[in-house]
Amino acid sequence: MAACRRCNGQRGHASLGDWADECERRGWPVDRARLVRTLEELTAAIARRGGQRRARPWLAAQVRRLGR
Questions:
Q1: Among 3, 4, 25, 59, which is most buried by a count of CB atoms within 10 Å?
Q2: What is the spatial distance between Cα 17 and Cα 7, in angstroms, rounded to a whole number?
Q3: pTM for this prediction
């Protein structure tokens, strides 16, 4: 996901779901609906084009986590 340099640096290797939770704890706004929509678009693109077998379960897990 695109983010500013500072946010990317602070996020480090945290997953999108973990980072969204952390941002909310810090009082920063999080557009979870947009994150879910973007991950679903990526999932659909992978399904159309093929490949990225290892990314599919990760994407599904992140969509579930962000949807909570």
A1: 59
A2: 14
A3: 0.77
Helical (H) or strand (E) element with 67: helix 55-67
Task: For residues 6 and 16, give the distance between their C-alpha atoms in angstroms, rounded to a whole number.
Answer: 15
Counted residue by residue, the chain has a size of 68
Using CA atoms, how far apart are residues 15 and 25, in angstroms rounded to an integer?
15
Position of tokens 């077998």? 53
The total domain count for the chain is: 1
Helix orientation angle between 55-67 and 32-49, rounded to the nearest 10 degrees: 160
Place of tokens 């599904």: 60
What's the domain range around 55?
A: 5-67
